[in-house]
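We were asked to recover a plausible sequence for a given structure. The inputs and outputs are reproduced exactly as logged, with field labels preserved.

PROBLEM: sequence recovery
POSITIONS: 116
GIVEN STRUCTURE:
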């Protein structure tokens, strides 16, 4: 997978999260989790962008790890919202699948970067 393709997927994932929450109810739990997942999903895309422009291999790997951490947080958040019925299974299914695939790709990138 090309770096631009991954950047696009991360941006698309963050955009899908933002679109989902633009129509959500305003309960305390819903708002708290919505704000957090918007931050973590956007952070994963933004940190990946920084990784692409990193000056050193060490800095690049660090930014990739931050992006991975944020993706894991997003997935956990989606699962909590599904389990607490803030989101339906239908709302979460595609997002969780894409989130999981992005995590797997990021793990592979980090592993391959550590070997260089």
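RECOVERED SEQUENCE:
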């Amino acid at each position: 997978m090309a770096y631009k393709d991954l950047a696009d997927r991360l941006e698309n994932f963050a955009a899908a999260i933002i679109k989902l929450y633009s129509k959500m109810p305003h309960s305390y739990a819903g708002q708290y989790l919505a704000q957090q997942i918007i931050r973590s999903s956007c952070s994963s895309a933004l940190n990946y962008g920084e990784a692409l422009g990193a000056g050193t291999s060490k800095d690049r790997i660090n930014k990739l790890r931050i992006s991975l951490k944020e993706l894991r947080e997003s997935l956990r958040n989606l699962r909590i919202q599904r389990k607490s019925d803030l989101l339906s299974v239908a709302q979460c299914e595609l997002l969780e699948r894409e989130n999981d695939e992005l995590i797997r790709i990021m793990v592979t990138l980090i592993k391959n970067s550590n070997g260089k």
